[in-house]
Amino acid sequence: MKTNTQTKLENILLPLAKRVNVNPNLLTILSLVFTLGSVYCILNSELVIASAFFLVGAVLDALDGMVAREHRRATKFGAFFDQFADRVNDGAIVIAIILAGYISVLIGILALFSVILASYMSAVMDSLAGKKIGEAISFRPLRSTAIFLGLALGYLEAAVWALLFIGIWSIAYRLFKAKWVL
Question: Can you give the residue range of the structural domain that contains 174?
Answer without folding.
Answer: 4-181
